[in-house]
Amino acid sequence: MTLDAKTAFDALRMREIVPALRQEIGGHPLVYLDNAASTLRPQQVLDAQNAFEESSYSNVHRGVHTLSQRATQAFEDARETVARFIGATSSNEIVFVRGTTEALNLVAQTHGRQAVSEGDQVMVSEMEHHSNIVPWQMLCSETGAQLVKIPLTESGDLDLDVYHEALSERTKIVAISHVSNVLGTKNPIEEMAQSARSVGATVVVDGAQSAPHLGVDVEALGCDFYAFSAHKLYGPSGMGALWGKQDLLEAMPPWQGGGSMIRSVSFSGTEWNELPYKFEAGTPNITGAVGMAAAIDFLEAIGLEPIAAREAELLEAARSALLAESSVQVLGDPKQRASVVSFLIDGIHAHDVGQVLDQEGVAVRVGHHCAQPIMEFYGVASTSRASFGVYNDASDIDRLIDAIRTAKSFFAV
Amino acid sequence: MSDLRALYQEVILDHYKQPRNFGALDQPVRIAHGSNPLCGDQIKVYVDLDGDLVKQVTFEGHGCAISTAAASLMTEAVSGLARSAVEELSHTFRDLVTSSDGSGDQADAPQDGPDLGKLEVLAGVREYPVRIKCATLAWHALAAAMDAELAGEADQALSTVSTE
Predict the structure, then answer these.
(1) Do the Cβ atoms of A352 and B7 come within 8 Å?
(2) Is CB count within 10 Å lower at the N or C end of chain A?
(3) How many domains in chain B?
């Protein structure tokens, strides 16, 4: 099936190709606006995984039998697809992991332990997801290094003046999200990475919210590591990728020990395998890799540029509609932004907003979005968040606003 | 809308908008702090104990309609009861909101426990598993306050309890 941007963005067509969208919730056709948490899978991704399971599944890099060879081929083809998708120069630089969280922990516990010692600094931004704070906190408490915060401004941008000022030769690692999962802020990675490089720090980018929505080129970003998850880009959960610069990956010690990550094992000593297998101990998520590649094929068939343009239009329309609504406040007004908007309704707790919206068939995320420092910054306990994906259209924003009005009327706001 | 009405009964909306016994007690014997990490809700429960008598319970905090109303209704239900009666009521209430038959029929409430009175309006949460913790947060905090004393800690200990 060929799928170009024009046919794909026909909402009815999207409902045809994404099975989970063909259902009613609370008696209403499902409107899915929780894409920042996880995306729904298109039929072609499900089919690709199923076809692989039915004809080619076996363990990889092990056997000489036909199925093992087919599985290995599919698994390594997937790695090539992922490398091309983010502009990596070599698929050796792609380490398959369970997801963004695992990728960030891997970097913190290997490169981090190498690069950071007592008295050094690790910088993370105030808008990070907990998964890009806690691994660095753990590293700092282990090494005696200091965790330094790049502060937010009221608009939901990072305070770059403070950032540039705070960088010094003590800064060893700068870890930042490309796109905020709460505010939708698109951070200026190129500029931030350039400054970090000038003091010799490595730059780790959490790409969970950018890979599905923007065309990403890791070389152009100028970062050293980039992590993202398959399940936020229409692929399966429990699957993701870490990209790292080859020289850094080569210099890093292995993370987990086991099969696959070794070249030879004896009781007198063990030799590590080459990249990227050094970081892939144990049997990997083979079908997950196939699904991730199929999801990338799905995105690339539509085109990342049309996707970014379309989602930007939807985001701006949603922000305007929310801002025009009485008793509704939108969190932040970042200069550059993508796919995510958080809002509050005066007098209705986010949990109750989510409940009413669900009854109206509109799925949003409510809570602190695993980013409690942002909640603390804005002085709120929780927010409601709408996040867009390829299958959303303008009618979904109408349904969101209608459901918000239902909530306001129900709670007499 | 009818499903929403089953969950958010009028009594719940009323206690959410105008919570009873809201605020700190001047001289509480016990304070416990409860939090729900899932949604960031925070609650502080103040208990004035006189021997075996729970003289008064108040609360402060920020939460959703269910957790606020549940806390407000709890303070009304337990103030003036003996400690053993509060514990019994707490168990019966937890059974009500976690009962797995999910019929929503109040006649299915446990037969041998104490009369739940107005607390029955929270029975609807059992249809919504993620909301059960909202309804029980204040009760967890109250239990933590009671346990702190049993453990023989100082007179005005601050106990912390989490729903996770």
Answers:
(1) no
(2) N
(3) 1
Residue B79 domain boundaries = 2-162
> In this predicted model, which residue has the larger pLDDT, A54 or B144?
A54
Q: Give yes or no for a contact between A178 and A189, defined as CB atoms under 8 angstroms apart.
A: yes
Nearest CA to B28 among B53, B11, B10, B45? B45
* Residues of chain B contacting A412 with CB distance shorter than 8 Å: 13, 17
Chain A contact for B60 (CB, 8 A cutoff): no
Which structure tokens are listed for B32?
Answer: 């416990």
For strand A269-272 and strand A146-150, is the pairing parallel, antiparallel, or unpaired?
unpaired
Token representation of residue B35: 């939090």
A57-95 per-position pLDDT tens digit: 999 987 889 999 999 999 999 999 999 999 999 999 999
Contacts of A327 (CB under 8 A, 6+ apart): A345, A346, A347, A408, A413
Q: Give A-chain residues touching B132 at CB under 8 angstroms.
A: none
pTM: 0.92
Distance from CA of B33 to the nearest CA of A (A): 16
- CB-CB: which of B4, B17, B40 is closest to A410? B4
Q: Among B35, B144, B162, which residue's Cα sits nearest to residue B86?
A: B144
Are A352 and B66 in contact (CB < 8 Å)? Answer: yes
pLDDT over threshold 70, residue A165:
yes
CATH code of residue B39: 3.90.1010.10
Q: Are the beta carbons of A349 and B64 separated by less than 8 Å?
A: yes
Q: Hey, what are A356's tokens?
A: 């009413």
User: Could you tell me which CATH class the domain A47-300 is placed in?
Assistant: alpha beta
Q: Minimal Cα–Cα distance from B152 to chain A, Å?
A: 34
Three-state secondary-structure class, residue A241: strand
How far is C-alpha A159 from the chain's CA centre? 22
Domain borders along chain A are 5-32+303-410, 47-300
For B41, name the nearest residue in chain A, comparing CA atoms only: A381
Catalytic residue among A370, A380, A401, A413: A370
Does the CB of B42 have a partner CB in chain A at under 8 Å? yes
Please name the residues in contact with A178: beta carbons below 8 A apart, sequence gap of 6 or more. A186, A187, A189, A205, A206, A207, A209, A210, A214, A216, A221, A226
* Token pair of B133 as six digits: 């913790």
Tell me, what's the ipTM? Answer: 0.84
Residue B164 sits at the chain A interface (C-beta within 8 Å): no
Contact at CB, B131 and A355, closer than 8 angstroms: yes
- pLDDT for res B157: 41
pLDDT, tens only, A249-281: 999 999 999 988 988 998 888 899 999 999 999
pLDDT bucket at B164, cuts 50 / 70 / 90: low
CATH fold for domain A5-32+303-410 = Aspartate Aminotransferase, domain 1 (3.90.1150)
Q: Does the active-site annotation cover A223?
A: no
